[in-house]
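Quick entry between incubations.
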Amino acid sequence: MSASTLQVPPRAAAGNRALGRSRFREWTEKEGVFSWLMIGPPILFLCAMVGYPFLYGCYLSLMHRPVASTGEFIGLGNFIADWNDPVFWRVARNTIVYTFVTTVLKALGGLGLALVMNQSFPMKNFVRAALLLPFIVPTVLSTIAWMWILDPTFSVLNWLLIAAGVPAPGPSWLGNPVLAMCSIIVINTWRGLPFYAITLLAGLQTISPELHEAATIDGATTWHRFRYITLPLLQPVLFIVTMFSIIFTFSDFQLVYVLTRGGPANATHLFATYAFDIAMSAGQFGLGASVALAMLPPLALIILALAIYMRKR
Amino acid sequence: MTHSPPSRRDFLKAAAAGSLGAAFSLTDAQAAAKTLTLMHENSFIKTYDEYMNKTLIPAYEKETGVKVKYDLVSVGGLQTRVTTAAETGSGPDLTGMAFNWPFLYDEKLIDVTDIADEAGKANGGWHPGGTEAVIVNGKFKAVPFGNIGQLMNWRTDWFGEVGFKTFPDTWEGLLEAGTKLKKAGHPFGFSLGHGFGDNHGWLYPLLWSYGGAEVEPDGKTIVIDSNETAAAVDFCRKFFQNTMLEDALGWTDPSNNKAWLGQQISCTNNAQSILWLAKREFPDIGKVTDHALNPMGPTGKRFHILNPWSHAIFSYTPDPAVAKAFLRWLMQPKQLSGWYASADMYYAPFLKGFDNSPAWNVEPRYLPFRDSMTTSHLPGWPAPLSRAQSESVAKYVVVDMFAKACAGASTKDVIAAAKAQLKQIYQQA
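Done. Structure below.
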């Protein structure tokens, strides 16, 4: 048999290719295959952008790894150093206070705002959109605006206070350790409030008005309706939004880094800013990673609580 | 003509085409990368960056055909970019370097001793400060360029009003002037917060001028807990309470510039950038702004912070010879003269041959920056370069020791805290 007799005629070859394409198409259209094709890229993305850095961070935290040099394995040496570092404990205390106070303020303020926004009033949609502004504006930009607001030389706040009789130059918002912490708490609350308000507003709108009407007919007061209808039905949304807020606030970086860089005298240093200073400015990657990983246990507990709660629901 | 909604396959095709397109464009970009990139922090002196972009780079391209890209990084962000480049082995070919970075990134930088030697010989040799930060294991890992000194900026008119026609020569003298000035409504403002330069800029020299130090020259023995340190801390507390705005405790680097140009303070410690800007945009303030060397402490000595800038070449650069040729060209006297002058000597030359450069005569008020060079040292001095030194700076050990005392903590407590931190830092180094 000659080679030429083995050649497939062109039309037959085209037919085979079409058949192959058709089978491939059928294969990709299968639900099980297509779903993996869709979910595969995000999983790969998460592995590359979240999983790998996280695992590498864990690996670094067990190393003495100065920047631009090879490291050596030191086990839990970095964590022991953190344990003995007084600034680390100051940072832990700051982070907990900052997260707890801002979360409470955001929850109360956000709930109040959501209840107001749930009423009917003129330009309701415009006000709802405007409410999101602090959340939409990039954190660095809004923080720079706050920097001017709190600057003793140019502060509009101090100008008002002095006009109201407070002795010049007025409070030192970022120079006094207590006021500096209060300032970053207020700014974080201002920034995070819309997230709470809009999410809770969405939750409020899922509550049937008939429930309120029925309760009103039964003689329930406004407080009773809020306490026994609104709050219980809003609880799942409130719980989830609080968990997310705690996670974001616990790992906050930009606001503090732009405003105070952790000063004065570590009064506003948080885990993220302290880890950054150690890793980037001091060039101690291992130690920096161990500080960053110190956020993991509390955050993991919060995520676990969130997962359990959502499963129960 | 009708359009049907895209099928799943269309979507996958589009996604694949997008990915391939991105891959091809990357390949094209890599193929076209025949230029050099010099990374530098945005200079406070705009004309310095303009001179590089508009004069030096075009001249070099005309002379050699090599294109150079000047990659500017925002102030305070350069170290992060240098770290990323050193760790990933990709990025700019050359970079500006500050502080002790040539030591920190030593393994990722090529030896440029030949260029530094040539430049030194052609320009009268190097000031010791220039080499303090760049020689690692006997090799230049960066070519020294200039020092951004941190000196006393003072308002001549307000000092004159309280009887000080010249700047006080000692810290006690400055305290006396500051006390009078604060009472007259013109307080001082020296950064005590977590900035990256203005705080270290006066607090280390204050400590040294009182005879204190963090570590012995052996780089191991912690000596922060001393009578000299205690005296410096006590002085700093009094100095803060009697002369300053409370807000200085939280200041970062732009704060004192803003306060100066807002006419809120009469004295601060800063580079010459305040005067540079004032002369151009606030001429009335510029006329009454002057510079002075840091005051002397009880030891009879004065000190200044060394804030050295240098240029280094990353070891991953594909053609080190091309990068070295550019750096060698930059360091030739012809280029250097214009380069230094473009910034009004903001980067005080480390080359002795420029000590009497006519560029210094353009603004005599900048001369103290030249004169401060012989008494300037890196944070951590007199210990040699080390990673522990960087960690101490990054953790603001000395700055916070003084800041806590100013905020009301006892001298004993703040020194004990600093000692504990330093012990831990230097032990694990």
